[in-house]
Design a protein that fits this description.
The chain has helices at residues 9-23, 36-57, 116-124, 145-151, 174-183, 191-198, 212-219, 274-286, 303-312, 329-334, 338-351, 361-367, 385-390, 398-405, 420-430; strands at 2-3, 28-33, 65-67, 72-74, 82-87, 103-109, 130-136, 163-164, 206-208, 230-236, 244-252, 259-268, 294-298, 317-320, 355-356, 371-374, 380-382. It is an alpha/beta fold.
């Protein structure tokens, strides 16, 4: 079963488990997932619901069967006639070995993300006539055992292939589908929409984030900035090999409503030291040309030193944690890290015509060469910079990254009244560089 959200597959599996256990003497059902908690939440919750309904109508069933948090068994044959849950992770697949019964049913959840070795043990147990396997998953990979059951002409013959499309489910509301449509890129054929809604294997799970045409159109984007927009300074700190960049833009809105209008971008040689680069950032702030400006600096690695110096000058810094996880569960299920979130969100806003990039050819070339993909958990992933450099011969996208940072910015309206305390802090900033000795 290749399925999108809200199609009722967990509910149906719970019914299948109860029927199989009741109808077949000494039946054995093995529930498998990457994590045991996943089995308990997804399947056993529903088994308990249906069991409660069953014994309400036929109380005598309680004399023969018992249900707990993680198992369901026949009282006379506990350990034999039962449902059990097992986890299968890379390196411990052998925990699935040794399962044999005349009536054996494997139910494997999120099968797309499990290793092929998992299925070696499952297939090795299918020695009796009534041995069955159910695989359930969103189609998050374009290879592996689960993909083969739907797509490989030879391996798929043994399987009944089902696709559960959320668009066709009576359990899914129109509002959910509308939200999903925009959340996954406003395109029914986008990889995430096909995986999570249509239950279909995407045509491609990898590629480049944007085309050159997308990037060029973004340099010509025309849109109004609503009231409440704020200034943002976004800084990417080089490491001696890559450039350092300061990008100033007008920014409005949050998330999928965000608008970004680039105003000025400055690039510095990668060998600029942290103190000098911090001074450049502080000089921008102290001019007063950009009131209430929000300052973003990549806070991991070499950028941490620059951020420290800017903060010592009395400026509030929002540190970008590129490798950090997203802040809520839904977003963690969609994006591997904050870099993936910011990059995908910026892409979607560019395609919506709500981001204006600078016209420098470096920015355009970087925007059109951001490799991305979807991992085994169905999450967006941006290729690591080391891999981009060593295997794909793509330089670090420093200029484009500063636009991505802006998708993570907390902004203050430029029109907000600045307090006297803030003015005093700004005066302190103005005197900061007089007390600093710059090394050669």
């Amino acid at each position: 079963v290749s399925s999108g959200h809200g199609t009722g597959k967990s509910s149906q599996i719970a019914i299948v488990v109860l029927l199989y256990m009741i109808m077949y003497p000494n039946a054995r059902v093995v529930l498998v997932a990457n994590k045991l908690d996943q089995v308990k939440i997804a399947v056993f919750k529903n088994i308990r619901i249906y069991w409660k309904g069953l014994i309400k109508r036929y109380p005598w069933f309680e004399d023969y069967f018992t249900i707990s948090e993680s198992t369901f068994y026949a009282n006379a044959e506990k350990g034999v006639w039962e449902v059990s849950a097992k986890a299968s992770k890379v390196g411990n697949e052998e925990s699935l070995a040794g399962e044999h019964a005349d009536h054996l049913l494997w139910i494997i959840d999120e099968a797309s993300g499990l290793s092929d070795k998992t299925f070696d043990y499952v297939e090795g147990s299918l020695t009796q006539v009534d041995n069955r396997v159910v695989l359930l998953s969103q189609p998050t990979r374009d290879s592996g055992y689960f993909w083969d059951t739907h797509n490989d002409p030879d391996k798929s013959r043994a399987w009944t292939k089902l696709i559960f499309n959320s668009e066709e489910s009576s359990l899914v509301t129109d509002q959910f589908l509308l939200n999903a449509f925009f959340r996954y890129g406003a395109d029914r054929n986008s990889p995430q929409y096909m995986i999570r809604v249509r239950g279909m294997f995407p045509k491609s799970l990898s590629g480049y984030l944007l085309s050159m045409d997308d990037a060029v159109r973004a340099t010509k984007a025309k849109f109004k900035m609503p009231k409440g927009w704020g200034w943002v300074l976004s800084a990417d700190v080089g490491n001696g090999r890559d450039s350092s960049v300061i990008n100033i833009a007008k920014v409005w809105g949050d998330g999928r409503e965000r608008r970004i209008k680039g105003v000025k971008i400055s690039e510095y040689e990668g060998n600029i030291n942290s103190i000098n680069f911090a001074r450049e950032i502080i000089n921008v702030v102290k001019t007063g040309e950009y009131p209430n400006i929000s300052v973003l600096i990549d806070g991991d690695g070499i950028g941490a030193g620059t951020a420290d110096l800017v903060e010592e000058a009395g400026i509030n810094v929002q540190r970008i944690r590129w490798g950090g996880k997203m802040f809520n569960k839904d977003e963690r299920n969609l994006y591997q890290d904050q870099r993936a979130y910011a990059s995908i969100m910026l892409r979607d806003r560019i395609r919506a015509g709500m981001v204006r990039l600078d016209r420098n050819t470096k920015t355009l070339n970087q925007a059109a060469k951001i490799p991305y993909g979807i991992d085994a958990k169905g999450r967006f992933v941006i290729e690591q910079k080391k891999v981009m450099r060593t295997k794909l011969n793509i330089k670090s996208p420093d200029r484009f990254d500063t636009y991505c940072f802006m998708m993570l910015a907390d902004i203050m309206p430029a029109s907000s009244v600045v307090s006297q305390h803030s003015l005093q802090e700004r005066e302190m900033v103005g005197n900061w560089d007089k007390d600093v000795t710059v090394s050669a």
